[in-house]
Amino acid sequence: MWNIGTYVEAWQLIGMLALTFVALIALAHVSGFRTGAARDHLPTDLEEAVEALAVGAIGSVLVLVALARLGPADPLDQWVRFIALQTVPLSIGAALGNALLADRGSLGSDDTASEGSEARAVIVDVAATAFGAFFLCFNIAPTEEVQLLASEASLVHLVALIVLSLLIGYAIVFEAEFIGIGRRRAQAGPFQHPITETTLSYCVSLGVAALTLLALGRVELSDPLRDVVAQTVVLGLPATIGGAAGRLVV
Known about the structure:
- By secondary structure, the protein is an all-alpha fold.
- Helix content is 74%, strand content 0%.
- Mean pLDDT is 82; it is low at 35-39 and 104-116.
């Protein structure tokens, strides 16, 4: 994946980091590295987002150096590009890991329901779905397997993959007894209904998959529609899994 850093434009890298920072602020507002009333303040959310980016950047350096992808002989431009690219998924992983491992009784529990804001609940769930889907997509989209599987898949295979993705998304959130499932079942709102949630979350995951492929240069707007759709559906499977995990966090 790091090889993408050799040809992706600088403005694209900056855009990815900017979008990641916005997403980290949103997740910090919902979960946060810290608990308490300070969570509701924007300065605290900004600080936590910066901390997540810092963790991602440090992790990027350690991993890239350990894997011999970066060394003293490499130019500074390559260091900056590779680290910036890897900071995106690692900072998201840091934020999601913190939200999953921390004991936060208020996370997605009575806050949303007590406020009686179903619209806010939908927005939070859509954002969490996109967050989790992007986390997995960003790591898988650069691989050749996506293009290979998409090129060999027939229409029947693609339809079967869509059905499989929907079933897996439903099973993770509504059937498997993962941590946080009790909180989700207790939440109100149209997004928590099995059919609507599964359908909407899959659509969000597909959108994230398509945008990720486009942002990383794996597809172009001039490509045949069939190729773009096939790659999006293939990447939509891991995106759906990531989106489901993201919803369990909140």
